[in-house]
Design brief:
The chain is mostly helical and about 240 residues long. It has 13 helices and no strands. It has helices at about 10-20, 20-25, 40-60, 65-75, 75-85, 85-110, 115-130, 135-145, 150-155, 155-170, 180-200, 200-215, 230-240. The radius of gyration is 24 Å and the shape is elongated.
């Protein structure tokens, strides 16, 4: 576990390190959409589809059969597509509880008096949640390249929390100042993909997170070793 040098949340520091975070702020333009409550039968269909999706994603991964989901939910394909026009829309609904859990974890870590350790814990929890279903890290990576994608919109809080926790860690001179929060999140997503593909254990994942974080930390160059070089006089005296 890494140890930071202190804590702090000076808003001016966030701006000094990341400026206006143009890459992140571009994704932060969230729109508030008010939806009318569903009728009782429509709500039942919605809940059944989401539960069926959870089961199929566990068994088959994020590319699981949508037809199978509709069949398990007991609804027609047209009903599924009316509620969820794309696979991503369905992924977002199925991930809602997972994303809420991560939000609570990040809020707790943001008050830690050890920002370095908090950042490492955040990396581990994000990577663990992204391994929920086979193919999820890949789905999220693809979505993040499209600002209008539903999954990109849903992951916005994760990006914001990554920025905040990274900034707190940088403020204590624990992590480097040249890190982009989106690049860091992408790195952790890639780590989750690798762990998912290899079937890594929790211990393996923690080790890999620790290794990744080590590359993001501030490191002082090692002190040069003093090498004793014989003088010309001593060399000549030995030769005689």
């Amino acid at each position: 576990m890494y140890r930071g040098n202190g804590s702090g949340d000076d808003p001016r520091f966030f701006e000094s390190v990341y400026g206006d975070s143009p890459r992140l702020s571009r994704r932060s333009e969230l729109t508030s959409v008010t939806k009318r409550p569903l009728r009782a039968d429509a709500q039942r269909n919605y809940d059944a589809i989401v539960q069926a999706a959870l089961d199929v994603f566990v068994e088959q991964g994020t590319q699981g059969s949508l037809d199978d989901i509709a069949t398990r939910a007991g609804v027609a394909n047209a009903t599924l597509y009316r509620r969820f026009p794309s696979r991503e829309d369905l992924l977002v609904a199925a991930l809602r509880h997972r994303l809420a859990e991560l939000d609570e974890i990040a809020a707790r870590l943001s008050t830690s008096d050890n920002p370095g350790a908090a950042l490492e814990d955040w990396f581990f929890h994000v990577a663990t949640h992204l391994r929920t279903w086979q193919g999820l890290p890949d789905s999220i990576a693809r979505a993040l390249s499209d600002d209008g994608a539903p999954l990109s919109h849903a992951c916005q809080p994760l990006l914001v929390w990554t920025e905040r926790l990274l900034a707190r860690s940088t403020q204590t001179s624990f992590t480097r100042t040249d890190l982009d929060p989106i690049d860091v999140f992408t790195l952790i997503s890639s780590l989750a993909w690798a762990a998912d593909t290899r079937g890594d254990s929790e211990q393996d994942l923690r080790r890999m997170v620790h290794l990744v974080l080590d590359g993001l930390c501030v490191r002082l160059p090692p002190e040069p070793k003093l090498v004793s070089v014989p003088s010309a006089r001593s060399s000549s005296s030995k030769s005689t």
